[in-house]
Structure formats: C-alpha cells, structure tokens
Design goal:
mainly alpha
Length: about 270
C-alpha cells in the first residue's frame, strides 16, 4: 500500500510539473499570435514551431542518459529506475486528447494565413485529420479547403506586389535616416508624402555612425532609402485593401503589424 501511495504521489507531482510547463509555453505562443506574430513576414516559423512543440506532448521521455550519470551517486541498494516517474497510462490518454484538440486548433488557424510553406502545412493538416478519423477528416478537410485556397491565392498575389528583398528587412536593424546626425532635430519639407531632411550640398556632415559623408554618398543613400520606403508604402497600401477579407479586429492586427515592421526598420 505504501509503495502504491508513493508511486501515485510521484505521478501527481509529474503531472503537475508537466502541465505547468505546457501551459506556460502554450500561453506564450498564444500571446505572440494575439499580438500579430501570425501576420509577420516570417509567420511560418511560429506556426511550425508551435505544432512541433505540441507534437512532443505524447513522446516518452528517455531517461537512460540521466540515469547513467546519476547511478554513481545512488546507494547500491537503490536501482536507478526507482527514481524515474512511473508509467501513467491515464495521464498519457488525457494528454493525447488535449494534443488532438490543440493541434487541430493550430492547424485550422495556420492554414488561413498566407505564408511560406503553406502547401506543406496544409498537407500536414490533411494527413493529421485523416490519420485519426477518415470520415471526420474528410468532412473537416472539405470545410477548410476553401480557406486554404484563398490564403494561397493571397500569398501568390502578395509576392507579386512586394518581396522581402524589396523591403530589405530580413536581418536588418533599425538605423537613423540618411544624413541625420546625433542630436539633430528633424527639419525638412514633405515631398510626395515623404519628409526629406534638409542638407546643404557642398558641405560634409557627420552621420549617426560618426563618419563623414560626401555629397555623392549622401545622394546615393537617399535615393536608396526613398526606393525602400516606396516599396514599404506599396506594401502598406496593399494590406489596407484587406485582401484576406479579415474581420475588423484581425484586419487591424494585420495592418498594425505591417506598420510596426516598417517602423522597426526606419526608426
């Protein structure tokens, strides 16, 4: 009886610890998605990592390496297996049901987002549903197929409007505008919706990185910055047309996310 109580206490502690870890990570992913991470340029990474994490819920933990390292510290009369959590089929069954529900929710939300690797993500969802129930899977796949097809068409259309190479935003850090020195105040006239900083040609100014900039360098960098900014304006104008036919709250999140990405590059 004492041994059974001991095993049950181990199971209870293990369940509580694992549930706490899973809940914390799931809340982190959901918080990121609620703040627009699902609409970012590299949104495919968060959906993929989220599904990969949930898939690990039913994978048995291999304690062999840890037991070998701890064996030297245990008394000779205590086998290493005695300190591992005992098997808990009931908990694994409950976890499997939670995993099924959570994965379905992630897949169904993810396939509606235009993103890189969308076709593969849809194939994973289709295989996931049919692996659990052929009849139910057929019904759900048919229900979500039009939403996936719409997301795919928007993704292809979006690639024709703008690309990451045009925006020059992959791996870039925010930098001050060209010709803007530390401590300067912004002065300039608006031209075509773009504020142009005033600078006297023929003089040398110190840029924000502390280097002298010649007139030719200044003109070249200003032209390059105007080109990048025009691509961003084109992207923002496209997103404001709501090509995904999002609800008001999701549409606001999509447009706000685009402005934040632009600000993070030019701020």
């Amino acid at each position: 009886v004492l041994h059974q109580q001991y095993e049950e206490s181990l199971r209870a502690v293990y369940r509580q610890r694992m549930d706490h870890i899973k809940s914390g990570i799931v809340n982190s992913y959901e918080t990121a998605l609620s703040h627009g991470a699902g609409y970012a340029q590299s949104n495919h990474t968060i959906w993929k990592r989220y599904t990969n994490f949930v898939k690990t819920w039913t994978i048995s933990v291999d304690y062999s390496t840890s037991l070998m390292n701890m064996a030297q510290f245990l008394p000779p009369t205590m086998p290493p297996q005695s300190i591992t959590p005992p098997d808990d089929p009931a908990y694994m069954h409950t976890t499997s049901q939670k995993q099924l529900s959570q994965l379905r929710s992630i897949y169904q939300r993810g396939v509606t987002h235009p993103m890189t690797g969308l076709d593969q993500f849809w194939q994973e969802y289709e295989a996931f549903e049919k692996s659990h129930s052929e009849s139910l899977g057929t019904v759900l796949v048919a229900e979500w197929l039009p939403k996936y097809q719409h997301a795919r068409s928007v993704y292809l259309e979006r690639n024709r409007v703008w690309s990451i190479q045009d925006l020059r935003s992959r791996g870039s850090l925010a930098t001050p505008p060209v010709g803007f020195a530390r401590g300067d105040s912004v002065k300039g006239a608006s031209s075509g919706g773009v504020t142009v900083l005033s600078r006297k040609v023929g003089s040398e100014e110190e840029s924000a990185v502390g280097k002298k900039m010649s007139d030719s360098e200044y003109i070249f960098q200003m032209d390059e910055e105007r080109s990048i900014l025009s691509h961003w304006r084109r992207r923002l104008g496209y997103e404001r047309t709501n090509p995904e036919r999002l609800a008001n709250a999701d549409f606001d999140s999509r447009v706000r996310s685009s402005y934040k990405e632009e600000a993070s590059l030019f701020a």
